[in-house]
Amino acid sequence: MSLSRPLVLFSPAPHPLQLPLCKQLGAEQGKLESRLFPDGESYLRILSEVKGKDVLVLVDLVHPNDKYLPLIFLLDTLKEFGAASVGLLAPYLSYMRQDIRFHDGEAITSKIFAAALSKHMDYLVTVDPHLHRYHSLDQIYTVPSEVVQGAPALANWLKGRDNLLLVGPDAESEQWVAGIAERCGHPFVIGEKQRHGDRDVEITLPDLAAHQHRTAVIIDDVISSGQTILQCMQALNLAGITQQECAAVHGIFAEGAAPMLLEAGLQALATSNSIAHFSNAIDLSPLLIEPIHQCINKVHNP
Fold first, then answer.
1. Interval 106-120: pLDDT, tens
2. Measuring CA to CA, which residue among 274, 300, 288 is closest to residue 122?
3. Do strands 54-58 and 7-10 pair parallel, antiparallel, or not at all (unpaired)?
4. H or E element: which one contains 221?
5. Is residue 201 within 8 Å of 231, Cβ to Cβ?
6. Which residue among 87, 96, 200, 269 is buried most deeply as judged by most CB within 10 Å?
7. Pairing of strands 28-29, 32-36
């Protein structure tokens, strides 16, 4: 699928997907100038010609409170300068956690964030958003959207290796881990997770006596505090499996989680390049090209 007009890709901050996407999309790398005034307000200047062109903004939305205002300033200014379309590629999409009101008085931030962001863009492409109680992004976003599954990229990374056991930390991960296992040909087990707080989880695993000769690869969609992975490692240690690795789509690694896991004995840590991190070993860019083309065509041919 080809585009009928030039594509310009802007990334407000350096991102590992920027260069491979520009190359595969045949896109121009957009240039802009941004800084903070002494009082903390944002300054933004677009240095590339965008009139009549399709524009894609690439930004992961980790720590969204710092990124939201600069992002909408960029999206709206691109529209003001005559871009034919302005889309957002958010490899990691934030504000998906609070999808219902658990206690009286709580804000359902996922709905508020989605409604606000939708006003400033023409489409959204993202990777493995946390769709827990929502069936699709269309329930909260009012623009065309494409959700890319990171599982094929993880499966390709695992292919060709021997004696692996894939480990999913909880029942929520079962369908996802099972799909990866089927693609790469490795056995898998699923743990049972009890969450007692944001940083307090307990993992139990089934009998692993038949897998003692294997290297366990813990598979997860997001690593944030790292506590789920740490508890999985401890459960594997109790089962006698000490060769342990971890692969995840999104590596947030809050509060020094990555060094903590490596110090705890994790032999290898691999994440996709959805979020810049030293563990990036899995390239998502081949999976993103077609969804980006599809969204641009939806904008111009609704």
1. 999 999 999 999 999
2. 300
3. parallel
4. strand 215-223
5. yes
6. 87
7. unpaired
